[in-house]
Amino acid sequence: MLSAASRDALAVDAAPNPWFDPSYVTRNWESILGYLGEHVRLTVGAVVVGALIALPLALLARRSRWLSGPVLGLSTLIYTIPSLAMFAFVAPITGLTATTVLVGLVLYSLVILVRNFLAGLQAVPPDVQEAARGMGYGPARLFWQVELPLALPAFMAGLRIATVSTVALTTVGVIVGHGGLGQLITGGFNANFYRAEIVTGALGCVLLALLADLLLAGAERLLTPWARGGRT
Amino acid sequence: MSLWQEALVYLNDPFNWTRRGGILDLLAEHLRISALAVLAAVVIAVPVGMVLGHTGRGGGFTVALSNVSRAVPTLALLTLFAVTPIGFGPTATTIALAVFAVPPILTNTYVGFRGVDRDVVEASRAMGMSGRQVILRAELPLAAPLLMTGVRTAAVQVVATATLAALVAGGGLGRIITLGFAQQNYGVVLAGAALVALLAVLTEVVLAAVSWAATPGPKRLPFLRPASRSAAGTPEPTASGVPL
């Protein structure tokens, strides 16, 4: 480890080292794009897989109180485990691959998604379910045509939170060499505190998270046309 | 030898615990940094949250703050502080962690104060309480459960996040994991991961007990609660943070 005294000898103090350097971005466009691609693939993959697992889990948990306790308890436990430890647990099985990061991210997104899916499903008024059943709706039709639309806002809220936090979490994947834009952050740190590279990685993550949030908010608007009328 | 056995062998060696820079040293450093960061965040966030919640201003600000903080990778914040004149080391890590602990505490304090029944505030005013007395004697006790939840969320997040400092050459228990990866020794990696996970879970359990004891009013044991409430399903609150 470097001490504070020996830092003066580093190139950081001798050479100009601006926080923002557009030429860095243009010079390294190819590699930045590669890391960005990996970041997006990991995030989208984790949220999609997480949603596919979370929906059946939430449906199961809604059926009985006995199931919802363990499902929610387990998800709270997962949320407590630090991400670095999570990736370290998975790494011996899957090795230094992007799969390690993906598995960890799916586990975290599951926690958020199951909770929100369950809350959305439980918020469907029993009267509405009764009415639909009375009109002759079977379980599948009841779910697709009545419960899903009513629970959609809660589902989308869960997806948005999961996506934004997954974008931030992906950076920790640098521990196995697949951290997307996180590679830029630690790369710049290891390259004599190269600020332009660090800032590019950090800003990239924040912008990506905001963009993903905006896209999902737009999707929610498109999927729930009935909610649009009253609000301004 | 399986990896878990290797991890056990590592954890079972007293020398790995007591030597300089061993597990005990790293644990002490981890806890010192975390405690300082949470303390700093409480000192900053609680008074601000109390004032904002009491006056009812800044609701949009606190929600926006907690949303934005979700999108900022902690790794980036740790690194950014390290490349400022602060330099990397315990100070930069502590500041970065404190910055991350502020939003959950601030948001929960604000929400807790806003959630206090207006009639109660009116009544305490009518009893002749001054503004300060209303805050300290009426609103604070009623907001205490949510406030404590915020502190707990923040503390667990900080303990978990302090692990990340090791990725940028900082100290703490995360070092065992990064060193294990650097030496391609997955047994050590697993041992470090188990230690870190255990510490985080322990923090959660201890703080849950503390906030239960610190909350005024009739106490119900936390594990009895799900049975009395409608079968769980609280949505992810906006105030809580990212696991890191």
Automatic annotation (TrEMBL), chain A:
> By what name is this protein known?
Osmoprotectant transport system permease protein
Which keywords annotate this record? Membrane, Transmembrane, Transmembrane helix, Transport
The answer to whether keyword Aminoacyl-tRNA synthetase applies is: no
PANTHER family, from UniProt?
GLYCINE BETAINE/L-PROLINE TRANSPORT SYSTEM PERMEASE PROTEIN PROW (PTHR30177), OSMOPROTECTANT IMPORT PERMEASE PROTEIN OSMW (PTHR30177:SF4)
Give the CC-aspect GO terms: plasma membrane
Topology of the protein relative to the lipid bilayer: Multi-pass membrane protein
So where does this one cross the membrane?
Answer: 39-59, 71-90, 96-114, 150-178, 198-219
UniProt family annotation? Belongs to the binding-protein-dependent transport system permease family.
Q: Which GO terms describe its biological process?
A: glycine betaine transport; transmembrane transport
This protein's record includes keyword Hydrolase? no
Q: In which compartments does the protein localize?
A: Cell membrane; Membrane
Q: Where is the ABC transmembrane type-1 domain?
A: 36-216
Q: Which SUPFAM superfamilies does the record cross-reference, listed alphabetically?
A: MetI-like
One Pfam family, short name: BPD_transp_1
Q: Which InterPro entries match?
A: ABC_transp_perm/SBD, MetI-like, MetI-like_sf
UniProtKB/TrEMBL annotation, chain B:
What name does the UniProt record give this protein? Osmoprotectant transport system permease protein
The record, for Pfam families, names:
BPD_transp_1
Compartments in which it is found: Cell membrane; Membrane
- Keyword entries, A-Z: Membrane, Transmembrane, Transmembrane helix, Transport
Q: A cellular component term (GO) from this record?
A: plasma membrane
Chain positions covered by the region annotation Disordered = 224-244
Tell me, which GO biological process terms does this entry list? glycine betaine transport; transmembrane transport
Q: Which organism is it from?
A: Blastococcus colisei
Spell out the family assignment given in the record's similarity comment.
Belongs to the binding-protein-dependent transport system permease family.
Limits of the ABC transmembrane type-1 domain: 27-207
